[in-house]
Amino acid sequence: MGKSSELPTVxxxxxxxxxxxxxxxxxxxxxxxxxxxxxxxxxxEGLPYFDSACGCTSWYSEPSLREWDTVAWWxxxxxxxxxxxxxxxxxxxxxxxxxxx
Length: 101
Known about the structure:
The protein is α+β, with helices and mostly antiparallel strands. The protein contains three helices and four strands, in the order αββββαα. α1 (12-22) packs across α2.
């Protein structure tokens, strides 16, 4: 496996705790390819909702509830070490696996 295996595998519980401790309300996933607006997870009442609609097209979808394990899976499946480090940072977890809070 690549260098990403050197980083800790995180669980949904760890991500949830780190996000709560850091007071994070939005976790950026990517930029809309049409208008450039940030698309990602909105944290609403402690739960992750994926918000994929920026409103630049006629298609709109309400944010949909996900599980913290889904967010952890997204982080853990990144092949690039730099990408994993960045995603861990976005959820309030340092490179060593500890919370920034």
